[in-house]
Structures are given as C-alpha cells and as structure tokens.
Amino acid sequence: MTRITVDKVAVEARAASFTTRSIKKAAKLQGLHMVVAMTDLTTLEGKDSAEKVRALCRKAICPDPALKSVPSVAAICVYPRWVKEAKAQLQGSRVCVASVATAFPSGQVDLKTKLHDVEDAVKSGADEIDMVIHRGAFLSGDFKTVSEEIRAVKKACGAAHLKVILETGELETYDNVVLASELAIEAGADFIKTSTGKIAPAATMPVTLVMLEVIRRHFLSTGQMIGMKPAGGIKTAKQALHYLVMVKETLGDAWLSPQWFRFGASSLLNDVLLQLHRQETGTYTATYDVTES
C-alpha cells in the first residue's frame, strides 16, 4: 500500500471553499429534505431507555407532523440492547436500525467480545453495524490487527451493512486518516465513518474531504462505490448543506443518496426542521415547537 502525503494547507483551503457556495431557495429546500433523508438519528447515552428509543423511532418515521413533505430519516442508531425495541417500533417503515458495536466507543476489548457484540446486534435485527477500529493498534503500526478485526466483523455482520468508524480525532494526521480509510475499505467496509461523537474533534470538513478523496480514488480504480458518514459536531442545517456541496463536487450526484451518504447526528435534525419551517412558511418556528425526540 502506497503511503500518501496530504497537503494540509491545500486540503483545508479546499474544504473552506465549499462554505462559500451560494445555495438559492429551491436548491436549499431540496438540500434540507435531502439532509433529513440522510440522517442517522442517534441516541448513545447511559440514560437511554425503552421510552426514549420509542420516541426516537416515532420522530424518525415522522420528523415533524406539521411538515407533511419531509421524508423519514435514513436510520436510527442505538446500542445493541435497544435494537430489538427499535426494530419493533419501526416495523413497516423504511427507517433502518443501525447499532454501534465492538465495545463502542473505545473498542478496548478482545476480538471475541467484539464479535459477540456484533452477533448480538445482528441477531436482534440490526440492518447496519457501526464498528470502531482498534486505534491503539493502528497508531502502533499494527495495521494487520486492524485489518483482521474489520474482516472478522464484516463476516459477523452477515447481510447487515458495515460502517467502520475511524475516530479521526485520535488519528493525529491527515496521512493517518488516508491510511485508515484505505485499510477499512480493503477489509470490507460498506461505509467509512469519521467519529464516534465522543471525542473532540469529531467530524470536520477537511477530514471528511480527505476521506471522500480516498473513496473517489477507490471508485476510479475499481468501480466500487463506498459510503461516507461524517458523525459528531455537525449541528446546523447550514453546516450540513456545506457537506452536501462537498460531496457533490468531490464524488458527484450518485453519492447524494442515503444509500451512500449519511449524517450521524442527534441535534442536527431539529435545526433542519426549523429551517424548513422558515422556507415553507416564511416565519421561524419557536425551538420549543420542535420535539427533542
């Protein structure tokens, strides 16, 4: 595998350029609907409960009853113990159930335990698995262990799609982000994902751009499309639209689909809904009129 050196100044300048694009009203409205459809609505807290998961599922199916044209989100993302509950609540909808696994967020357990975590989530009905890589092994140069764990988890996923979380905030350099992205793709990732949302910085536009470029190079050399999921730190509709511009100009329209691009978010959806109210009615809705879950 050829090591790629990333031009930090160029990447950050290119990423910043996407925030200068002018998005007119019709395109903005289309983009906001697209953001909703691409959202993995997430709750990954110690205080998660059955009722919180049920409320999350209701919002996932119908983000805002006052906005009839707004689509369902792509998926909800929960811990493995809540997969069965989520699956039951979402029956008959198009919303997928994603589950974090492999001792999320640290990944600091043995492979046998990680695989049990994955198998438990899949058995409970998870459509997608979001795994974390072994960052300690990666930063120690033990790329073989990282790759073998991803391959084993991919096998344990069965028919479920695998999103591989790099936790880019711990990878230290853009060069490492490139290498981790390439390892994940070669080991079988269906998606590569920036972050757990538990480490700062989480998703950033430069890091996401670096990962999109890896996906682009892979597609040009193999013809295989790989999905991308920035997660954590994307809180406003304006930020999300900038990400869509970056995806369009880097990978093209084919990736502007929930099948190939997702936002991992908990608070983003509400800001998008507030902006949609503004676009459709001409007035801003009060924040308390948009439910938290």
Keywords:
293 residues; alpha/beta; TIM Barrel; eight-stranded parallel β-sheet; 11 helices
Task: Characterize the structure shown.
The longest helix is centred in the last third of the chain and has 18 residues, at 205-222. Helix content is 46%, strand content 11%. The chain is globular, with a radius of gyration of 18 Å. α9 packs parallel to α10 (237-250). α9 links the parallel β6 (191-193) and β7. It starts with 7 loop residues before the first helix and ends in a 12-residue tail after the last helix. With 293 residues, the chain is α/β, with parallel strands linked by helices.
What would you give as the CATH superfamily? Aldolase class I
Give the % helix.
40-55%
Question: What Rg, in angstroms, do the CA atoms define?
Answer: 18 Å
Low-confidence stretches: none
CATH architecture, by name, is Alpha-Beta Barrel
**N-to-C order of helices and strands:** HHEHEHEHEHHEHEHEHEH
Average pLDDT number: 94
How many H/I helices? Answer: 11
Question: Distance between the terminal alpha carbons, to the nearest Å?
Answer: 44 Å
Our count of domains comes out at 1
Largest sheet: 8 strands, parallel
Briefly note the CATH topology name: TIM Barrel
Assigned CATH class: Alpha Beta
Characterize the overall form: globular
Strand content: 5-15%
